[in-house]
Write a structure and sequence with these properties.
Blueprint: H1 2-30, H2 39-50, H3 59-63, H4 66-77, H5 87-117, H6 125-136, H7 145-151, H8 153-169, H9 172-186, H10 188-199, H11 206-217, H12 219-223, H13 226-251
Length: 255
Protein backbone atom coordinates (compact mmCIF):
# COMPACT_ATOMS: atom_id res chain seq x y z
CA UNK A 1 0.00 0.00 0.00
CA UNK A 2 2.98 2.34 0.39
CA UNK A 3 3.14 2.78 -3.39
CA UNK A 4 -0.55 3.70 -3.61
CA UNK A 5 -0.30 6.07 -0.66
CA UNK A 6 2.71 7.77 -2.23
CA UNK A 7 0.94 8.13 -5.57
CA UNK A 8 -2.20 9.66 -4.03
CA UNK A 9 -0.25 12.01 -1.76
CA UNK A 10 1.95 13.36 -4.53
CA UNK A 11 -0.94 13.78 -6.96
CA UNK A 12 -2.44 16.28 -4.53
CA UNK A 13 0.81 18.11 -3.77
CA UNK A 14 1.93 18.27 -7.42
CA UNK A 15 -1.39 19.75 -8.57
CA UNK A 16 -1.10 22.47 -5.94
CA UNK A 17 2.40 23.72 -6.86
CA UNK A 18 2.34 23.13 -10.64
CA UNK A 19 2.19 26.80 -11.79
CA UNK A 20 5.33 27.60 -9.80
CA UNK A 21 7.00 24.51 -11.26
CA UNK A 22 6.36 25.79 -14.80
CA UNK A 23 8.04 29.11 -14.00
CA UNK A 24 10.90 27.32 -12.23
CA UNK A 25 11.61 24.99 -15.18
CA UNK A 26 11.66 27.87 -17.67
CA UNK A 27 13.89 29.93 -15.39
CA UNK A 28 16.37 27.07 -15.03
CA UNK A 29 16.42 26.42 -18.77
CA UNK A 30 17.06 30.10 -19.43
CA UNK A 31 20.27 29.97 -17.37
CA UNK A 32 21.93 28.04 -20.22
CA UNK A 33 21.06 30.60 -22.91
CA UNK A 34 22.78 33.79 -24.03
CA UNK A 35 19.77 35.88 -22.96
CA UNK A 36 18.55 34.62 -19.58
CA UNK A 37 15.19 35.99 -18.44
CA UNK A 38 14.09 37.04 -14.98
CA UNK A 39 11.20 35.33 -13.16
CA UNK A 40 9.01 38.37 -13.88
CA UNK A 41 9.81 38.22 -17.61
CA UNK A 42 9.06 34.51 -17.75
CA UNK A 43 5.72 34.97 -16.00
CA UNK A 44 4.79 37.81 -18.36
CA UNK A 45 5.84 35.82 -21.43
CA UNK A 46 3.90 32.75 -20.28
CA UNK A 47 0.79 34.84 -19.66
CA UNK A 48 1.03 36.75 -22.96
CA UNK A 49 1.53 33.55 -24.94
CA UNK A 50 -1.07 31.25 -23.41
CA UNK A 51 -2.80 33.09 -20.58
CA UNK A 52 -3.66 31.17 -17.43
CA UNK A 53 -3.42 27.90 -19.37
CA UNK A 54 0.29 28.52 -19.86
CA UNK A 55 0.91 28.10 -16.14
CA UNK A 56 -0.72 24.68 -16.27
CA UNK A 57 1.15 23.50 -19.35
CA UNK A 58 2.47 20.01 -18.70
CA UNK A 59 0.11 19.35 -15.78
CA UNK A 60 -0.95 16.04 -17.33
CA UNK A 61 2.65 14.80 -17.70
CA UNK A 62 3.42 16.23 -14.25
CA UNK A 63 0.66 14.09 -12.77
CA UNK A 64 2.09 11.17 -14.71
CA UNK A 65 5.65 11.72 -13.47
CA UNK A 66 6.01 12.77 -9.85
CA UNK A 67 3.18 10.56 -8.51
CA UNK A 68 4.62 7.58 -10.40
CA UNK A 69 8.11 8.38 -9.15
CA UNK A 70 6.96 8.61 -5.54
CA UNK A 71 4.70 5.60 -5.85
CA UNK A 72 7.65 3.49 -6.99
CA UNK A 73 9.90 5.15 -4.41
CA UNK A 74 7.73 4.43 -1.37
CA UNK A 75 6.87 0.93 -2.54
CA UNK A 76 10.56 0.12 -3.02
CA UNK A 77 11.79 2.01 0.01
CA UNK A 78 9.47 0.21 2.44
CA UNK A 79 11.93 -2.70 2.49
CA UNK A 80 14.28 -2.27 5.43
CA UNK A 81 18.02 -2.91 5.37
CA UNK A 82 20.34 -3.43 8.30
CA UNK A 83 23.81 -2.87 6.89
CA UNK A 84 25.32 -0.34 9.25
CA UNK A 85 23.55 -1.03 12.56
CA UNK A 86 22.55 2.62 12.46
CA UNK A 87 18.98 3.59 11.56
CA UNK A 88 19.97 6.83 9.84
CA UNK A 89 22.70 5.29 7.68
CA UNK A 90 20.39 2.42 6.81
CA UNK A 91 17.69 4.93 5.92
CA UNK A 92 20.19 6.73 3.67
CA UNK A 93 20.89 3.45 1.86
CA UNK A 94 17.23 2.54 1.26
CA UNK A 95 16.31 6.11 0.28
CA UNK A 96 19.15 6.43 -2.23
CA UNK A 97 18.50 2.99 -3.76
CA UNK A 98 14.73 3.50 -3.96
CA UNK A 99 15.27 6.90 -5.55
CA UNK A 100 17.48 5.47 -8.27
CA UNK A 101 14.99 2.72 -9.08
CA UNK A 102 12.15 5.22 -9.26
CA UNK A 103 14.26 7.59 -11.38
CA UNK A 104 15.02 4.86 -13.93
CA UNK A 105 11.30 4.14 -14.26
CA UNK A 106 10.09 7.74 -14.42
CA UNK A 107 12.92 9.55 -16.29
CA UNK A 108 11.36 9.26 -19.78
CA UNK A 109 8.20 10.88 -18.43
CA UNK A 110 10.22 13.69 -16.84
CA UNK A 111 11.96 14.38 -20.17
CA UNK A 112 8.58 14.75 -21.91
CA UNK A 113 7.25 16.91 -19.06
CA UNK A 114 10.21 19.30 -19.24
CA UNK A 115 9.88 19.67 -23.02
CA UNK A 116 6.15 20.40 -22.66
CA UNK A 117 6.75 23.04 -20.00
CA UNK A 118 9.58 24.92 -21.71
CA UNK A 119 10.30 26.77 -24.95
CA UNK A 120 6.62 27.70 -25.48
CA UNK A 121 5.96 24.17 -26.61
CA UNK A 122 2.31 24.01 -27.71
CA UNK A 123 2.52 20.46 -29.01
CA UNK A 124 0.67 17.58 -27.43
CA UNK A 125 2.09 14.78 -25.35
CA UNK A 126 2.24 12.25 -28.21
CA UNK A 127 3.78 14.67 -30.70
CA UNK A 128 6.41 15.72 -28.17
CA UNK A 129 7.33 12.06 -27.62
CA UNK A 130 7.63 11.57 -31.38
CA UNK A 131 9.86 14.64 -31.70
CA UNK A 132 12.14 13.42 -28.89
CA UNK A 133 12.40 9.98 -30.44
CA UNK A 134 13.05 11.43 -33.89
CA UNK A 135 15.84 13.71 -32.69
CA UNK A 136 17.61 11.35 -30.30
CA UNK A 137 16.05 7.91 -30.34
CA UNK A 138 15.28 5.92 -27.22
CA UNK A 139 18.38 7.21 -25.43
CA UNK A 140 16.97 10.75 -25.55
CA UNK A 141 14.27 9.74 -23.05
CA UNK A 142 16.98 9.01 -20.49
CA UNK A 143 18.76 12.35 -20.73
CA UNK A 144 19.45 13.71 -17.29
CA UNK A 145 19.38 10.27 -15.65
CA UNK A 146 23.04 10.33 -14.46
CA UNK A 147 22.60 13.75 -12.85
CA UNK A 148 19.27 12.58 -11.43
CA UNK A 149 20.94 9.60 -9.78
CA UNK A 150 23.60 11.89 -8.34
CA UNK A 151 20.81 14.17 -7.20
CA UNK A 152 19.23 11.23 -5.36
CA UNK A 153 21.86 11.70 -2.69
CA UNK A 154 19.41 14.41 -1.70
CA UNK A 155 16.83 11.75 -0.86
CA UNK A 156 19.46 9.86 1.10
CA UNK A 157 19.92 12.99 3.21
CA UNK A 158 16.32 14.19 3.20
CA UNK A 159 14.50 11.18 4.63
CA UNK A 160 16.90 10.41 7.50
CA UNK A 161 16.70 14.10 8.40
CA UNK A 162 12.91 13.95 8.23
CA UNK A 163 12.89 10.97 10.61
CA UNK A 164 15.29 12.74 12.97
CA UNK A 165 13.32 15.98 13.06
CA UNK A 166 10.05 14.08 13.47
CA UNK A 167 11.45 12.28 16.50
CA UNK A 168 12.50 15.61 18.03
CA UNK A 169 9.44 17.73 17.17
CA UNK A 170 6.61 15.27 16.50
CA UNK A 171 5.50 17.76 13.84
CA UNK A 172 5.21 16.57 10.25
CA UNK A 173 5.12 20.04 8.67
CA UNK A 174 8.19 21.35 10.49
CA UNK A 175 10.12 18.11 9.98
CA UNK A 176 9.37 17.81 6.25
CA UNK A 177 10.00 21.51 5.53
CA UNK A 178 13.31 21.54 7.42
CA UNK A 179 14.60 18.35 5.81
CA UNK A 180 13.60 19.46 2.33
CA UNK A 181 15.03 22.97 2.59
CA UNK A 182 18.41 21.77 3.83
CA UNK A 183 18.85 18.89 1.37
CA UNK A 184 17.47 20.73 -1.67
CA UNK A 185 19.55 23.86 -1.13
CA UNK A 186 22.76 21.87 -0.62
CA UNK A 187 22.35 19.88 -3.84
CA UNK A 188 20.50 22.43 -5.96
CA UNK A 189 23.20 22.70 -8.71
CA UNK A 190 22.53 19.08 -9.69
CA UNK A 191 18.84 19.82 -10.15
CA UNK A 192 19.70 22.80 -12.33
CA UNK A 193 21.94 20.62 -14.51
CA UNK A 194 19.28 17.92 -14.70
CA UNK A 195 16.57 20.29 -15.96
CA UNK A 196 18.90 21.69 -18.64
CA UNK A 197 19.79 18.16 -19.79
CA UNK A 198 16.17 17.08 -20.00
CA UNK A 199 15.12 20.18 -21.89
CA UNK A 200 17.91 20.02 -24.47
CA UNK A 201 17.58 18.30 -27.83
CA UNK A 202 21.32 17.59 -27.71
CA UNK A 203 23.26 15.44 -25.30
CA UNK A 204 24.92 17.76 -22.80
CA UNK A 205 27.50 16.39 -20.32
CA UNK A 206 27.14 17.38 -16.66
CA UNK A 207 30.63 18.97 -16.59
CA UNK A 208 29.99 21.04 -19.70
CA UNK A 209 26.75 22.51 -18.36
CA UNK A 210 28.26 23.28 -14.96
CA UNK A 211 31.37 24.78 -16.57
CA UNK A 212 29.30 27.03 -18.85
CA UNK A 213 27.18 28.32 -15.98
CA UNK A 214 30.23 28.89 -13.79
CA UNK A 215 32.07 30.71 -16.60
CA UNK A 216 29.15 33.11 -17.09
CA UNK A 217 28.06 33.74 -13.51
CA UNK A 218 30.48 32.07 -11.12
CA UNK A 219 29.36 30.01 -8.15
CA UNK A 220 26.28 32.20 -7.75
CA UNK A 221 25.07 31.02 -11.14
CA UNK A 222 24.96 27.43 -9.94
CA UNK A 223 22.59 28.47 -7.17
CA UNK A 224 20.56 31.01 -9.09
CA UNK A 225 16.94 29.86 -8.95
CA UNK A 226 17.40 27.94 -5.69
CA UNK A 227 14.83 30.12 -3.92
CA UNK A 228 12.28 29.54 -6.66
CA UNK A 229 13.07 25.81 -6.62
CA UNK A 230 12.42 25.66 -2.88
CA UNK A 231 9.15 27.54 -3.38
CA UNK A 232 8.06 24.55 -5.47
CA UNK A 233 9.72 21.59 -3.81
CA UNK A 234 9.23 22.44 -0.14
CA UNK A 235 5.42 22.94 -0.17
CA UNK A 236 5.18 19.90 -2.45
CA UNK A 237 7.10 17.73 0.01
CA UNK A 238 5.27 19.08 3.08
CA UNK A 239 1.82 18.47 1.57
CA UNK A 240 2.87 15.04 0.34
CA UNK A 241 4.26 13.92 3.72
CA UNK A 242 1.25 15.23 5.66
CA UNK A 243 -1.10 13.38 3.32
CA UNK A 244 1.08 10.27 3.36
CA UNK A 245 1.19 10.11 7.17
CA UNK A 246 -2.58 10.65 7.26
CA UNK A 247 -3.15 7.73 4.89
CA UNK A 248 -0.74 5.53 6.83
CA UNK A 249 -2.48 6.31 10.12
CA UNK A 250 -6.01 5.85 8.91
CA UNK A 251 -5.97 3.25 6.16
CA UNK A 252 -2.94 0.95 6.56
CA UNK A 253 -4.81 -1.47 8.84
CA UNK A 254 -7.98 -1.38 6.75
CA UNK A 255 -6.54 -2.63 3.48
Amino acid sequence: MEGLFGLISNTMSTSFVHPIDVVKSNYQMARNTSNPQSVKQIMRSTWNTNGLRGFYRGLGPNLGTYPIFWGVYFQTGKHKVNLFQNKYLDKFTTSFAAGNIASAVANPLFVVKTRLQTNNNNKGYIQTMKDINRSGGTRAFFRGLPSTMLNNFKLGIQFPMYDYFLEKTNNIAISSASAKLISSTALYPLDLVRVIQRGSEKKLPIKKIARNIYAKEGIRGLYRGALLYNCVSTPNFVIMMMMLEFLRSNFSDKV
